[in-house]
Write a structure and sequence with these properties.
Blueprint (H helix, E strand, L loop, with lengths): L12 E6 L9 H12 L4 E6 L15 E8 L6 E5 L15 H12 L5 E8 L11 H19 L1
Parallel strand pairs: 1-2, 1-3, 3-5
Antiparallel strand pairs: 4-5
Helix pairs in contact: 1-3
């Protein structure tokens, strides 16, 4: 087991936003992160990347809650905000991980239970390289951001 020391001043809540701004609605995660960071909410740290990597397990240290934000092609509604638990990932590579696998990796590395976690999955429609954010996704972004802000302020 790896021993990891927690930094003295870690924001209790971490938002990890994922997506590629060059692929249309895949920009939903980074756009939400940009808006959230501009609010400067106390106790909230925001990270942005194209995809989830195992190295993010180190960023979970000392957190009370982590929220993963990403675009999705699934679902009929504008977004879902649901709890997620640690579990193994069936992928054969560590190139990209699911939130569940990252939480499992954290437990494996530290021997501790991971922080409380949920996934904000925002419905997207157009993911082609070079595409702009679709009007439908922009409307979904507004609703999803309002829900995320409410949760973080609550």
């Amino acid at each position: 087991m790896l021993t990891l020391e927690t930094a003295a001043q870690v924001a209790p809540r971490l938002v990890i936003a994922l997506g590629n701004p060059s692929r249309g609605d895949d920009a939903l995660g980074p756009l939400i992160a940009e808006r959230l960071a501009a609010l400067g909410l106390p106790g909230v740290e925001v990270l942005v990347d194209y995809q989830l990597q195992i190295e993010y397990a180190l960023d979970l240290r000392g957190r009370e809650e982590v929220i993963f934000v990403d675009a999705t092609v699934a679902g009929d509604g504008p977004f879902t905000l649901e709890p997620v638990a640690a579990s193994g990932d069936r992928s054969v590579t560590t190139h990209a991980l699911s939130p569940q696998a990252l939480l499992e990796g954290y437990s494996t590395l530290t021997g501790e239970a991971p922080p409380s976690a949920c996934v904000l999955a925002v419905r997207g429609y157009e993911f082609e390289l070079g595409a702009a954010l679709s009007a439908q996704a922009r409307a979904n972004l507004e609703r999803a951001f309002a829900a995320l802000e409410s949760q973080l302020r609550g």
